[in-house]
Structures are given as structure tokens and as C-alpha cells.
Amino acid sequence: MSPARRRGAVEGMPVAGRYDAVLFDLLTALLDSWSLWNAVAGDDATGSRWRGEYLRRTYAVGDYRPYEDLVSEAARAQRLDPVLARQLADRWDELAPWPEAPGVVAELTSTSRLRVGVVTNCSEDLGRRAAARLGVPLDVVVTAQAAGAYKPRPEPYRRALDELGLPPERVLFVAGSPYDIPGAGGVGMPVWWHNRARMTRGDLPAPLAEHHTLTPLLGDLSTPSAERPDGKETIPR
């Protein structure tokens, strides 16, 4: 049994019929934004430093400040040319979804008939452009700018729930980073973690399930309510 599968088969994993909608982190869970940051920076190591600095700033900023300003300030803090922020925005339409992402989202909306949306730490303009790169219609697109705060503050998650008109327990959140786990979980949503980069979560709460691709999400959401892959009952019938 692979490590990813062991992490996926955990108590309380998602099951069929429990959810009316699925919300995704956009720039990590559905799209490969890391590659674009690295390309603009010139190499992977520099891109990682720049992006890491930007993430630290979003987690600490409080109320929303323009995304582009934070990206530029992060470049300066890492002794990079702040013009890179403009280059990143200019190349934003080069963002690519993870290979399986469009098919997974399309399957959720067509076969499973779930409503699907994204919650993203982005400006309205860049968030909408990024969402369009998925190539699949979405019911809800919530940006940090629209919510007035960056994740993992509760405002973006709550705005998405308000737009869906659903209680949090009926909406599964698919995290891209470990900080989405307490963020979405803090407003009452169960969390499934697409840990593509095999990040560690340290002392943060455990998600319902953790996988390194999105494909297992479809299986988890189609698992009958008293069934687990190991045959043990986890949820009362």
C-alpha cells in the first residue's frame, strides 16, 4: 500500500451523499502556479524564495492589500527586481492546470452533480483569469480582494459559503496548502488535502484525507457511506 493511499484511507473520509458542493483552492490545488513563478524568477530556487516571502506576507497582512503590491514587496525583500511582479501578471495567462484537474472538476459537476467553486488569494482580475485557465465552468469564484482578506482568514471561506447558500458541513474544501486546513476547517468545512508538493503540516490539524493527485477525490466522493477501502465501517448507516 502506497503512503498516499494510507493517508487517504483515514477515519471520517469523504463519502457519497454528504456534500452538495466542493470548493477548491485555485492556485495550488487546481493550477500549477509554482512553475510560472519559477519561470518569471529565472530558476526554481529563486522562484521558491520569492513565492515563500509572498506567502508569509499574505498570512500576516490582516485586511486585504493589493495582491500585486505584496508580490512586488516580496521581490524587494528577496533582493529581486520588483519589476518581476509586473512580469508575473503579464504572463498570468500561462498558468496551467494540473493534468487531471479539468477532468476531475468536470466529473464532479456532470456525473456527481455537485456545485463547484474556488477560493483564491488573488486580486479580482488575476483570480478570474486564473479560474478561466481551468477551462471548466465554475459556480463560485471568490477572491481575497472580494472578501477583503486573504486566506487563511475566515472571510474568503465564509463568502464562498454565502454565495453557495449552503451550510459549511455540506461543502467539502479541497486544500492546496496546509494552512487551508485550519482556515476552511475553522468555519466548519471538512477538508481534503491535495498535497501535490508533499508539504509537511507540522502541528496543523489533520485533513479528512491527503493525496498527491486530485484523482482519488472522485473515488472518495463515490464511496458509499458505510464503506472504507479496508472494508471497515466508519460512519453509521
Automatic annotation (TrEMBL):
Molecular function via GO: hydrolase activity
Source taxon at top rank: Bacteria
Bias (Basic and acidic residues) ranges: 227-237
Pfam families, sorted: Hydrolase
Region of interest: Disordered: 215-237
Keywords: Hydrolase
UniProt-recorded name of the protein: Putative HAD-superfamily hydrolase YfnB
